[in-house]
Amino acid sequence: MSDIILFDGICNFCNSSVQFIINRDSKGRYQFASLQSNIAKELLKKHEIKDNLDTFVLIEGDRYYTKSSAALRICRHLKGMYPLLSLFTVIPTPVRDVFYNIISKNRYKWFGKQESCMLPSPEIRKRFLD
Q1: What is the pLDDT of residue 57?
Q2: Phi and psi dihedrals of 114, rounded to 5?
Q3: Residue at 130 is within a domain
Q4: Domain that holds residue 10
Q5: Radius of gyration over every alpha carbon of the chain, rounded to an integer in angstroms
Q6: Residue 121 pairs with which residues in a beta bridge?
Q7: Is residue 27 a contact partner of residue 123, using CB atoms and an 8 Å limit?
Q8: What total of structural domains would you count in the chain?
Q9: pTM of this prediction?
Q10: Is residue 39 part of a domain?
Q11: For residues 41 and 50, is the Cβ–Cβ distance under 8 A?
Q12: What is the pLDDT of residues 33-80, one digit of tens each?
């Protein structure tokens, strides 16, 4: 099974991040579900992850990652120079997450939000979980 990324489906920044990942995930490693979806709620419950997150979540098998840890793990598998960003894992997680939290708390103000979740094109629809 593919790794799963749970994201805020009404956040413009989050939706742009998903598009960014899709465009650089040439092997189709990642599947996606909005945090507002039923499947995301089931996955959060299954992995015992609190559901009022201000982050996206990466689920790899039985393990999950949030905030900067999720972002850096995702970068490891993207084409181009992005795997080099995973070198930032040497920085302690609490330090990395300070910057992540600033963006997360201001994402609606800075980037706006949508009235509903994005609708992917038919060719990438199969990578989104219902």
Answers
A1: 94
A2: -100, 160
A3: no
A4: 3-125
A5: 14
A6: none
A7: no
A8: 1
A9: 0.85
A10: yes
A11: no
A12: 998 889 999 999 999 888 766 788 999 999 999 999 999 999 999 999
